[in-house]
Write a structure and sequence with these properties.
The protein is mainly alpha-helical. It folds into 2 domains: 4-138, no CATH class; 151-283, no CATH class. The protein has helices at 4-7, 10-13, 17-29, 39-45, 50-58, 75-78, 92-95, 125-134, 151-163, 171-181, 183-195, 200-212, 218-241, 253-259, 269-278; strands spanning 35-36, 62-64, 70-72, 98-100, 106-108, 137-138. Strands 1-3-2 form a 3-stranded antiparallel beta sheet. Helix 9 (151-163) runs parallel beside helix 11 (183-195), helix 11 crosses helix 12 (200-212) and helix 14 (253-259) crosses helix 15. The longest helix has 24 residues, at 218-241.
Length: 284
């Protein structure tokens, strides 16, 4: 039921005994594919608490979804159930978000395995066959079939490449962003955010600014940037020809937005205050 590769690893034994015991209980209560629909209730029933669940998630031993469903990440290492005896999980929506690594561990986006992977020279013939067969494949429909990742999965990958692990609390926000703006615009907003060494909230502020301006496509976003740069250059040339005028202090909302590359033309003070807050500019 449990692989020693997992339960004797330093990462595992360094956890409190309550967290270790909860891992074993979740393994016993999971369905044939490693999914649990009531992990919080089980943690209370077995004398653990929410902190133990959070620790197991933080250490990468479980994956928690916003729906409340949890999956044991290394389930396929712990259990070898004959395919003809496996009862498929009912949590199909959560399952479509997962892939398998070369050892059979569940991965969400760009997560890494909780146990070290041997190099090719150390692999047995069976391991190498498993790696060739599974690779990084989707498990949503049929085992071992290559499946094109959804825009939501691509967004998870993009987030984790630039901002770190996606916390389950953010899933709903990311899904809403995909529906509201589309992946193409989100990628462009993330590029601009990372150039300024900002977080994802800053990118969301850019997206909201574009939406407010009626920008719906990548071409429109790039055209708006060119227009803004030209306008800024013209203003700068005009200032050089005229008498010096008082510039906007950078501590004002409008000054912060202009510095961040946002066109504030036509925006009210309340709109500028709200957008600056959403982009995290009040902390500067």
């Amino acid at each position: 039921m449990f692989s020693k590769e997992v339960t004797t690893s330093d990462l595992f034994v360094d956890m409190p005994s309550s967290s270790q015991l909860l891992y074993f209980h979740l393994g016993m209560e999971a369905d044939d594919e490693g999914f649990i629909g009531n992990a919080k209730m089980l943690s209370r029933a077995y004398g653990s608490n929410n902190d133990d669940l959070k620790l197991l998630e933080a250490k990468g031993f479980i994956i928690a979804f916003p729906s409340g469903v949890t999956v044991v990440k290394d389930w396929n290492l712990n259990n070898k159930i004959r395919k003809d005896r496996v009862k498929a999980t009912i949590y199909t929506e959560e399952k479509t978000l997962l892939s398998l690594d070369s050892k059979g561990a569940y991965l969400l986006g760009n997560q890494v395995s909780t146990i070290s992977q041997p190099n090719d020279n150390q692999m047995s013939a069976q391991d190498r066959i498993g790696k060739d067969r599974l690779g990084e494949v989707s498990i949503g429909e049929g085992r071992g079939e290559q499946k094109e990742p959804s825009d939501f999965q691509r967004l998870i990958n993009l987030y984790q490449e630039n901002f770190g692990i996606v916390k389950p609390i953010l899933y709903d926000d990311l899904k809403a962003d995909i529906n509201d703006y589309g992946l193409e615009l989100i990628v462009e907003a993330v590029k601009r955010s990372t150039k300024k060494q900002k977080d994802y909230a800053y990118a969301q502020g850019i997206l909201k600014s574009w939406n407010r301006s009626g920008i719906k496509t990548l071409e429109q976003a790039k055209a708006e940037e060119v227009s803004f740069q030209n306008k800024s250059q013209n203003n700068q040339n005009g200032f050089q020809q005229q008498k010096p005028v008082k510039s906007l202090p950078e501590w004002t909302d409008e000054g912060r937005l202009i510095k961040a590359g946002v066109d504030t033309t036509g925006m009210t003070q309340n709109e500028m205050y709200k957008l600056a807050g959403e982009m995290g500019l009040h902390n500067e």
